[in-house]
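USER: Write out one fold?

ASSISTANT:
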Amino acid sequence: MSWFSNIINNKHKTKDFNPSKRWIHFSNGLILDEADNHQSIWITDSNWFEKWFFGVEERLGLILGKRLIQASSDSFEYSLIFNKAQIPKNKDIGSWKELHEDWMYRSFGKFSLYSVDSKTTKFLITNYANLYITIGYLSSAFEYINGARYKFHWNDSETSILLIFEPTNQFFPYPSKSNNFDYNFSDFKKTHNSELWDMLSIGDDGAWYVQNSRKMIVSRDLFFRFEEQCMPSLKKIDFVGLSNYDWGIKDELKSLWWSASADSARELFIASSYHILIREDSDWKKVGQKHLSMYGLGNITHAESVDKSGGIIFQLETSFHLSLSCGILLACWERAYGMKGKLILNSDKNYFFVKISNSLDDLNPQY
């Protein structure tokens, strides 16, 4: 039985739906998709993700919606092919129970067949979590179930999307092999994050919430494919705060993308006005658990002060994506000390080391 068939069976009822049974926290600060043992995921607020996305676009001076659609489509299509997902015998996407429930687990919203004629097939997506990701997921599922390629366009409002498919003879290659499925979780223990799941509420609108925050699942593969999709469009550009990030990456454009991603995350975290109280270095582990591990972004295994003005080195064992983890850590540091910070990343074969210090300090030595 494939992973996709494991999501739901004939005895499984919607009333038994519980996201915590599929999205499993591990002691390394990541969250594993229990239905797909090769995939780690990020639990994010849907509005937060949208604002982060727009922040990246603004810093890079690009429109990236189609890039996110392509990354979403490629990621889900690759997962369907890789896991040999079973489809209904009648190829009716409306009766594909596993797909509908998968959308519930990801908190994407709901979709239904709107109309069919000789030239087009139309779907209505309601209460969608993210315009571009849901379009990408549904388009790849529609092509997979029909074994054919389609052109598509859409009309959208704040609450719904009308997604329109038309057959095409154009050739579109299958998604490239992913290198984002190879993390080994066997050395880590499953944990139950009660602080997150005890606040869970499930709506009847194809979404679930934590403390009234609409959540959405973003897979690591999707996120990395989005980064890769952006690369051909990137050009050297400057934005406020760019000089505060040193990733130790030779590829200048990749470094630029990471900085845009991190700075957008930093700005959003600062705007959220979280209170960060640090009395001693060990308090940073709790900060990491609350703002990184709870959502699958990684963990802090050690923190050590390096000067009297708040400079610190974090040791990270894992990360969903370093740009997000580091951007949020920088924001936490700035909230804790009331200063603008500068970040330097280094690593060895076992750990990542994130040094944060006052951005006005010109010394910032390597370590």
